[in-house]
Amino acid sequence: MPGALFAIVGPSGAGKDTLMRAAAQRLPALHLVRRVITRPSAAGGEDFEGVSEAEFARRLAAGEFVLHWQAHGLRYGIPAQVREVLGEGRQAIFNGSRAMLAEARAQFPALRVIHVTARPEVLAARLAARGRESTEDIAARLARAEIGLPAGIEAIEIDNSGALEAAVEALVAALQPESEKRSS
């Protein structure tokens, strides 16, 4: 039986990567997809593979990504190896973009979407604390925070404005198969 693929989406600063890492600690079989991004690896913040524009273009042309998109002046790719993980019957989760969900659903019809949000003041504080973006970049990211999900995309909603533990519990519950939820 193929595994389940989850896309976790939401505005920058909502805590998607933090929630994914915490869920993986509780669900050891969960595969965290390591994105490829045209950003220096030293930028930190999440576990990703930083590559140049040229390397990203080469990998894209070689068919090494099952999904790819552009946002915030960067290119993002989901490595094709995720298909192997799913073929093993494992669950996989990737940090995606709301704008690419229609394409992702076309490639993976059973894709499950988790939409993480946080109050604007929480987002602003988290983005500033990262120290990666200028004031202008933070303002642009906050403006994009209001963008909703594409039409026809249903999602599990998680508000990560408050205690991290509450949001982690909500994510872990969303990732558990229905059979496990009923038996626990």
TrEMBL record:
Biological pathway: Metabolic intermediate biosynthesis; 5-phospho-alpha-D-ribose 1-diphosphate biosynthesis; 5-phospho-alpha-D-ribose 1-diphosphate from D-ribose 5-phosphate (route II): step 3/3
Positions that bind ATP: G10, P11, S12, G13, A14, G15, K16, D17
EC number: 2.7.4.23
GO biological process, alphabetically ordered: 5-phosphoribose 1-diphosphate biosynthetic process; organic phosphonate metabolic process
Reactions catalysed, as given in the entry: alpha-D-ribose 1,5-bisphosphate + ATP = 5-phospho-alpha-D-ribose 1-diphosphate + ADP
Molecular function in Gene Ontology: ATP binding; ribose 1,5-bisphosphate phosphokinase activity
Membrane-spanning intervals of the chain: none
Keywords carried by this UniProt record: ATP-binding, Kinase, Nucleotide-binding, Transferase
SMART domains from the UniProt entry: GuKc
Major enzyme class: transferase
The keyword ATP-binding is assigned to this record: yes
Keyword Transport: no
Function recorded in the entry: Catalyzes the phosphorylation of ribose 1,5-bisphosphate to 5-phospho-D-ribosyl alpha-1-diphosphate (PRPP).
Stated family: Belongs to the ribose 1,5-bisphosphokinase family.
Matching HAMAP family: PhnN
Name of the protein described by the UniProt record: Ribose 1,5-bisphosphate phosphokinase PhnN
Naturally occurring in which organism (per UniProt): Pseudoruegeria aquimaris
The encoding gene: phnN
